[in-house]
Design goal:
The chain is an alpha/beta fold and about 300 residues long. The protein has two domains: about 50 residues, no CATH class; about 200 residues, Vaccinia Virus protein VP39 (Rossmann fold). Helices cover about 30% and strands about 15% of the residues. The protein contains nine helices and nine strands. The strands form two sheets. Strands 5-4-3-6-7-9-8 form a seven-stranded mixed sheet, with helices on both faces. Strands 1-2 form a two-stranded antiparallel sheet. Helix 2 crosses helix 5 and helix 4 packs parallel to helix 5.
């Protein structure tokens, strides 16, 4: 930075009392430099307003944080509170609404197609016959990302109705755009926590299938408690499957594949369709990231279990 009078270079000084380079200022513990600086300078127009990450919690379907087997290291970013605490209890988080911007095309799709294809969350059972205007098998997908595979599967299986749950708005907009581009009629979206959707909107023994493709593997050991595929959730999913229905999971992280195999194999109402991992079903397309991983020698593991 040059002095406006002398033109000589001046050293940049840290903003004392605002944020330190190591994030140790007591006022801003747990807050990123990007967010803090945005909060300080947004009124001046120097930086955009801070975009805080919103965290979703799937609380009842994860192991307790106090379980030593699942909490070998302290998880400082996820504190728990006692029942006597005046503050609400923090729950284990399994997904993050990442800060991202929607494109103009996604925004148009959200505005024009959202009212028809995005179902509002409700605490009453969903009547799929009314929603789709027909009686057909229904498959629920949890976490469809940007929706490429979801749209292709819906086009491949027009005789099946699909409901996709996703909390990430750009992903919802991207899938809506594909729905419009390809005139997909057998697909609806719920932009909400999938566990609450299962609790309140999906009737027991009503689903023909459930898809969970490439859920966040939460690589760090101390974060394994946040993984979506845990025994209580699998039991809940199984209760929503009709007899003969299927649960199809896929992951490109082998340790997570091993955990999923163990958890699904332990659910008494489910039976594996393969000795361990299944061949990729023909209806599941390869994503561009999966193709890139295969070229690099990475593996992908599919697991398909049926309801007894």
């Amino acid at each position: 930075m040059a002095s406006p009078r002398t033109g000589q270079s001046l050293p940049l000084q840290p903003l004392k009392g605002v944020v330190s380079s190591n994030g140790n200022h007591p006022l801003f513990k747990g807050v990123s430099c990007r967010t803090t600086l945005g909060a300080c300078f947004a009124p001046l127009g120097l930086l955009g307003a801070p975009r805080l990450e919103t965290i979703g919690a799937l609380n009842r379907y994860q192991p307790k944080m106090s379980d030593p087997a699942n909490n070998d290291q302290p998880d400082h970013d996820l504190p728990t509170t006692e029942e006597s605490s005046p503050f609400p209890r923090r729950t284990i988080r399994t997904f993050v609404m990442r800060a991202g911007r929607t494109t103009e095309g996604q925004e148009r799709a959200l505005k024009n197609l959202g009212p028809r294809f995005v179902l509002p969350y409700q605490t009453e059972l969903l009547d799929t016959g009314v929603v789709f205007g027909r009686t057909a098998p229904v498959v629920l997908e949890i976490g469809f990302g940007m929706g490429d595979a979801t749209a292709k599967i819906a086009l491949t299986l027009p005789e099946v109705d699909f409901i996709g749950c996703e909390v990430h708005e750009p992903g919802v907009g991207a899938l809506l755009k594909q729905i419009g581009d390809h005139d997909i009629t057998n697909l609806r979206i719920i932009q909400h926590d999938a566990v609450e959707v299962l609790d309140h909107m999906i009737a027991p023994a009503s689903l023909a299938g459930v898809h969970i493709f490439f859920p966040d593997p939460w690589h760090k050991k101390r974060h394994h408690k946040r993984r979506l595929i845990q025994a209580p959730l699998v039991a809940h999913l199984a209760s929503r499957l009709a007899p003969g229905g299927y649960l199809h999971c896929a992951t490109d992280w082998e340790p997570y594949a091993q955990q999923i195999l163990e958890v699904l194999s332990s659910e008494p109402s489910l039976v594996n369709t393969a000795p361990d991992y299944a061949e990729k079903p023909a209806y599941r397309p390869l994503t561009k990231f999966e193709n890139r991983g295969i070229r690099l020698g990475h593996g992908v593991w599919d697991l398909v279990f049926h309801k007894r």
